[in-house]
Amino acid sequence: MDIRPSSYIGIHSSDSSTKVLYVTEGVLHAVGYAPSFLVNKQAKDFIADSMDQDDYPLLYASSNEDGTDNTASVYSMWVNIKSARGMPVLHRIVSFRCDHTVIYLGITFPQVPFKDHHELEVEQLDREAKRLNVTRTKNALEQSRPSGQMFVTRGQQAKCAVVLEHYAPSISNRQVTGPCIRFATSSIDRVLDADYSDLIGFPFLKLVAPEDVLLVTKFLDRLVDSCDVQFEKFCLLSRPYVISGDIVVPDCENVRVLVEALGAASSSDGMVLLLRKIRSISPPTPDTMHQYLHARSGSEEEMSLLEILTSDPETSCAAPGWSLAR
Hints:
disordered C terminus; about 15% helix; about 30% strand; 7-stranded antiparallel sheet; 8 helices
């Protein structure tokens, strides 16, 4: 199998083992491995750089003594991965941490000559300071002389992650229900009144409030058209009709859940969405044309993901949501 520029989605555990739980078919073109070969292997063992391979799982380790989550949710990094032919392949990895699992999107650049990364450097796209050198931070902690200050965003975030099947923008997709859900973290019940196991194979757009279906369809189109992480805010139905025979809550009575979505897509293997709950909103009122009128005003206690990306806590232009970790 020829290795060529490609992309794929994988899931591994967030503990020190980084056990691979799932990977899409695109990995075969990306690095030459069949998905069945990679499942149950340790993701960190495939890092080709000379950095300490244990630096990678340190990204996802909780740093609080009580076990609560004190790490970022989304990371972007450049790493060389061992291919089946033994040659390193440069990857841009975007990883989403949620519910003791890490869902990652790998985009490969096999045409780029190998350059060894001696240290693991990442960009944090959610919750904590924006840049982190894991290797240097680890060494500083081992010497009991941590350098600098860590700024965090205030408030706990109710969030979940979903993997959607491959989506090809078209008129037919807009008329139907969009891509179906391949995988959802169990924490989705903190955002919606639905169990994650019932959502596998369920059309994602059926979770979306009717007034936002077009907005979300355009968001999915943007994901497919770009290799960059994309952001959008939209409303989900608090009580979607998932199980046949269950109680149907009419749209005009169904509470909306405003979420902020951060997404990334593979060219052929689907897409990953991290959904952060902002707040619940009363059901909208339809106008005379039976179109929903929906005002989304109101204060938000937490910083948006865009604010976190564009705001520096150490400058005068800092967003008000930052606080200094003691």
